[in-house]
């Protein structure tokens, strides 16, 4: 199956790539993975073709991608396994166009018992907490970034968050903007928790 995505995240995961975007026809999230276990992608798997050559995919690009199958996990229901076919860039959107793709969750996976930067995995395993999507694109007005510690502090719907940043461009963070768009991702299980991650800062 072929889908055209607006790429909103190409973050670092185990020295590989976690690439995700929104289907242009439905605006639903798709997380590109290498297998049914949600394996992150190698450099070569995240390259696209355009008339000028092959390049690593970047946020805000419109990308045509071929998928083999859907492979949802309890904590990441948007996973799709990619084929070996090289991706094709169709176009690119501008920053002001991001608004039409925003999500509007009431909170960022607050489970009522854990710190705000994590979710107790057992709650997901036991269906006590339903993860209907593991990616959110949100807008914030009070972002503070610690480049050395690779952490982002912000508030969303009256709740404060301090999350790890996996955006590879964090060292180029520009603090002059009045507002920022963030891709927040729910990561894989680690020591009984799924941690919340800032995958992209736009």
In short:
It comes from Bathymodiolus thermophilus thioautotrophic gill symbiont. The protein has 202 residues and is mostly beta strands. Helix content is 2%, strand content 49%.
Structural account:
This protein is mostly beta strands and 202 residues long. It folds into two domains: 2-97; 101-201, no CATH class. The chain has one helix spanning 121-125, and strands spanning 2-13, 16-23, 29-33, 47-50, 53-56, 61-70, 79-82, 87-92, 118-120, 135-140, 144-146, 151-156, 159-165, 180-190, 193-201. Strands 9, 10, 11, 12, 13, 14 and 15 form a seven-stranded mixed sheet that branches. A five-stranded mixed barrel has the order 1-2-3-7-6. Strand 2 (16-23) and strand 3 (29-33) form a beta hairpin.
